[in-house]
Description:
α6 packs parallel to α7. 31% of the residues lie in helices and 25% in strands. The strands form six sheets. A four-stranded mixed beta sheet has the order 22-23-1-24, covered by helices on one side. It is elongated and about 65 Å long. By secondary structure, the protein is of the alpha/beta class. It folds into two domains: 3-19 and 230-415, Enolpyruvate transferase domain (UDP-n-acetylglucosamine1-carboxyvinyl-transferase, Chain, Alpha-beta prism); 22-227, UDP-n-acetylglucosamine1-carboxyvinyl-transferase, Chain. A hairpin with a 2-residue loop joins β16 (272-276) and β17 (279-283). Ligand EPZ binds at residues 22-23, 26, 93, 119, 121-126, 160, 162-165, 186, 303-304, 326-327, 369-370, 397.
Amino acid sequence: MDKIIIEGGHSLKGEVRISGAKNAALPILVSSLLADGWNTYTNVPGLKDIESTLLLLENLGAKIERGKNTVRIDASGLNNPEASYDLVRKMRASILVLGPLLARLKEAKVSLPGGCAIGARPINLHLKGLARLGASIEVEHGYIKASVDCLKGNSIYFDISTVTGTENLIMAAVLADGVTVLRNAAYEPEILALADVLNKMGADIKGAGTSEITIQGVSSLKPVSVSIIPDRIEAGTFMVASALTGGDVTITDCRSDHLEAVIHKLSLTGTKVIIDGSNMRVKGPDKIKSVDVKTLPYPGFPTDMQAQFMVLMSVACGFSIISETIFENRFIHVSELRRMGAQIKVSGNSAMVQGVKKLSGAPVMASDLRASASLILAGLVAEGKTEVNRVYHLDRGYQSIEAKFAKLGAAVKRVKG
Ligand code: EPZ
């Protein structure tokens, strides 16, 4: 297994271009199942999760052509309704094929995704929504078996606003008979991006980006050529890296309007964020001020930025409280940060962070995607050498992260395992 080694103490300077958004690309690539013919997707990030998605789509019968950050998909040959355990266990977001398979093949057999390091990650709301559209659903032997004669539009209320649940139901409803209204829908930018792509394919979706989405079913969709939006979490990660190291980093090809909560919180720490179109210049403060944060559904502070922000608070001047309200076990990075000298106490879904002058480099273990990123960030400011093991977690969601940091002046390298 590869590891990444960082020598701390370098402040970051220069420019970094943000890749396409993993959490927009995954549902958009899956939406190719909804039409016959070649779809072309550009600005697709080169990530393990993208490769897992393409393997799954191929397994279902789609034809795939891969280029550099470009993917072409033709689902005319879609003929297999089964997403096997072996494929789904690699990536939970494979559950997104459920809606499109029901819409196109009227049946689906998808392995239950199971939990992951950050929580149980139930999918009950996905299944409840599909049942409201007329699907009959059984769960047995670790598989979801769903079938329907014809999906029928209906009103669906999500007890909890769920990102992939909203995406799954949008993709099931676009070819259903009649009108579907999703209430308490999630409105992360990735959902609006998916709806934009589906509307370009001929769907009739209104209200995406708000908590109430109305989908008028249509008879068929046509293939499309689109570009994936920039990854707001990758951008946020580099913003924190600049803030952390007293750096001066310009982040290009990003969407500052997707990062309002992160920009607001970073500004309160004394970090300067200068927005210029699709670029953001981020200048770290001499002294980092402590700021409390609570993760919330969009447009609140994103849970996917919680671990990264905790690193910043662990070397701030003062005391802060970080509350995680989305997932039940998203403080795995705390024990590793404490090994690097951070003063953090966890009680329930809150972490109390007492800033310290310096972190000290150590061998640490990555556990989930964003926790891995936080360990890299900690290594950037720690005294001495930090060795982050199991970086395959990182490769799921960040394209060539060590090369991007090295270009900004960090002393970081990957050692092939
Ligand atoms: C998406 O996961 C993202 N993944 C996650 O990013 C992100 O952290 C999360 O949304 C929250 O923003 C992708 O988009 C591929 P949810 P998702 O359904 O859709 C509960 C990353 O690092 N819930 O919005 O799985 C659930 O337990 C990943 O890129 C149910 O109870 O998250 C959680 O508490 C990590 N029943 C809350 O809703 C359901 O049926 C929000 O989860 C579905 C969800």
